Every structure is written in structure tokens, then in C-alpha cells.
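This is your field. Please look over both lines of this record.
***
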Amino acid sequence: MTKTHKALSTTHVSTNYHHGDLYSSLLNTATTMILEGGVEALSLRKLAIRIGVSRTAAYHHFKDKNDLLVAIAAQGFVSWQKQAEQIVINKALTEREKYKAFVHYYVQFATENAAIYQLMFGGILWKDKQSPLKLKEVAYPSFQFQVELTKTWQNKGVLPASPKTLRLAQVTWATLHGIAQLVIDGIYADASQIDEMCQCAVDLFLVTHKN
């Protein structure tokens, strides 16, 4: 199990729960089940059995499977941003090194947590633009975080200043999402190819310093 995988699926199973403990256990165990077998492998009944509680106890926290999936996706956004922030505050890296690390981290997170990543950005929860407010309240700030990073790197001369910040952030995100999805879909699997694609993205977006 990888470091990013662990961050998403720290499961504590016990039959003696306080109210908050059960919620966390349901959420973390459900995340593990999705990472193991995909969204299709998850149901509130199976989740309750795996933890060792009644189905009624599970429904006390999540009204249905979709409600549970929204909570899992929201947790994915929070986990992704917390880890990305560690790159930003790393004083041992230059700003250009931070950008490179961010690009590689994005694709790594997506591919190592493919089922969760697809839940975060896929049609299951975003179809018909009817996504629950609970998900939007986490997902939108997560993208805004990328916009703010882009603006910071533009101001510091790491990224080109001429494109509008929002558009540059969108194009960067679309590029990384595309690379990640190609890997998730099995079109690319060789680690060296994935690294080279990430590095190519870095080289395309970074401002070239002239001597």
C-alpha cells in the first residue's frame, strides 16, 4: 500500500463505537472497499457487515449509498489538498522544484487512488450538474487552491504571466487530468513513460530562464 493510499484508507475497526468513531470507521472502511474493488463493490449492507455493526447504524450516518460516495469523494479532495500543501511549504525546494513536484504528485495521487479519483471527478457524482452542495463545498475550494498556486507561481516568474490565471490553471489541470486518466485507463502503464509525460508537462508550462 502506497503512502497516498494509506492517507485515504486508514481503517480502525471496532465493535465499541462512540458516535464520531463509527462515522470515521464507516467512511474509512468504505474508502478501502472502493480502492480494493471499485464503487460497484460497495453497499451500506456490505459495509455494515465488514465493520460488524447493524445496517441501521450505517444508515444513521448515511441516508443512502450516494450520500456515502459524496462523503468519500469529499474526503479525497481534503486529503489531496493537504498533501499538496506539504509541497508548497517545503522550504528545501525552490519554486520551480515545487512546481515539478506538484505535477508529479497530482498524477501519482490520481493513479495510486484511481477509484477514489474517478469518484472525485467522474460522472457518478457530477452528472447533470446536480452534484450535492456537500461535495461542491469541498471540490470548488480545492480547485481554487490550484488557481491561487498558479497565481503565486506566475508572480514569481515560474509560470508565464501572460495567460489569465484562471485559464492557465484550467489548462494545467486538464493536462494533468488527461495524463492521469490515460494511466488509469491502462493506455500507459510503464513508469518511465509516465514520468516522462509529467516532465514534458513541466517543461511546457515552466518559464524558460535565459542566460
Confidence is low (pLDDT under 50) at residues 9-16. The two ends are 44 Å apart (CA to CA).
